[in-house]
Amino acid sequence: MVQGGKDSAKVVEFMKLFVQLKDWCDDAPDELADLAATDSSVKDLCDRLSSAARFLKIDERTARVLFAVPAGPAFLTAWRNYEDRYEPSVSHIRESALLELLGIYGMEQCE
Questions:
Q1: Would you kindly state where each structural domain of the chain is located, as residue ranges?
Q2: pTM of the entire structure?
Q3: CB-CB contact of 91 with 49 (8 Å)
Q4: Which of helix, strand or coil describes residue 72?
Q5: Is 36 helix (H, G, I), strand (E, B) or coil?
Q6: Phi first, then psi: what are they for 7, rounded to 5°?
Q7: What confidence category does residue 63 fall into, taking pLDDT thresholds of 50, 70 and 90?
Q8: What angle do CA 5, 50, 35 make, to 5 degrees?
Q9: Angle, helices 9-24/40-62, rounded to nearest 10 degrees
């Protein structure tokens, strides 16, 4: 993920979004769902972070050599933190927002 001693644009984008999300929720991923329910900017940030992480996962699966290149310790720590603590909440928020857009989420309330 490091190209010529410099982090790739994908890594930089992921790190920027992840730091912002951690700041917004005071590093409490369990509170993200409540924040997203009342603040659409949190939903948007989760969507963008999820997309950024998805691109990195694709690289990890399809180009292991690139992912095996020594990455900065800050990225590796953030990536592990994201996967372990944040990814479940971020994915849930993103999926809920997508279902809401499709008119599927909350339909039981309309019956």
A1: 2-110
A2: 0.80
A3: no
A4: coil
A5: helix
A6: -65, 145
A7: low
A8: 125
A9: 140
